[in-house]
Amino acid sequence: MDDTRTSLDVKEYPDTEVQKNRTLTLEEWQEKWVERKITFHQEQGHQLLKKHLDTFLKGENELRVFFPLCGKAVEMKWFADRGHSVVGVEISELGIREFFTEQNLSYSEEPIKEIPGAKVFKSSSGNISLYCCNLFDLPRANIGKFDRIWDRGAFVAINPGDRKRYADIMLSLMRRGFHYLLSVFSYDPTKYAGPPFYVSDDEIEILFGSACNCQCLEKVDAFEERHKSWGVDYLIEKLYLLTEK
């Protein structure tokens, strides 16, 4: 794995299996939105994405960009405003509606015939479509393939036991020449059960390395005062760029 030199020495925890049986249900994620336990939402957008945006987009126009577990990420409007087409998937209908309301975007909604009970919300401009359903059901909706994937708060949120299935879906959605930007966290998983769940360098290589070049663009100290309640004493965010081999 190509690893950009950095002064930040990330500690890799040797037992990557410690969280493997940890699970959250879809209902628990929906309750987080209802109870406003959404500290994962970043109102100003993601700073590392801003920093590496040119590397991610490569100056290309009219790209299809996928946001797995999108919540109400403000970056979706960033990309739409640049002329790109955005597709997201999110289990919380509340989160999706809040995105359109907070971004002052009019929208329509319609059922997804391939997924009973699911809906798709579309901006009136036509370049943002957000699917309200289980991510693992999404392939049934035939949403096509993507030039870019921005994965912040998705891979680290799914149950660790589902990562192989998740990675397979992401790989199936990528067009030739794709760029997949992935944000993960490193901390001592014996002290905090997650989410966000701990992800090792090796696991990224195992899940994506056969199809992707995996480059760590940057590692930053993401520890904040609120993380003390997790029982951890460090939290490192790592940003990876996955590209076609």
Automatic annotation (TrEMBL):
Stretch forming the signal peptide: none
Pfam family, one: TPMT
SUPFAM superfamilies linked to this entry: S-adenosyl-L-methionine-dependent methyltransferases
Record key words, sorted: Cytoplasm, Methyltransferase, S-adenosyl-L-methionine, Transferase
Enzyme class at the top of the EC tree: transferase
Residues passing through the membrane, by range: none
EC number: 2.1.1.67
Matching InterPro entries: SAM-dependent_MTases_sf, Thiopurine_S-MeTrfase, TPMT
Protein localization: Cytoplasm
S-adenosyl-L-methionine among keywords: yes
Reactions catalysed, as given in the entry: S-adenosyl-L-methionine + a thiopurine = S-adenosyl-L-homocysteine + a thiopurine S-methylether
Subunit structure: Monomer.
PANTHER family in the record: THIOPURINE S-METHYLTRANSFERASE
Family from the record: Belongs to the class I-like SAM-binding methyltransferase superfamily. TPMT family.
Protein name in UniProt: Thiopurine S-methyltransferase
Organism annotation: Pipistrellus nathusii (Nathusius' pipistrelle)
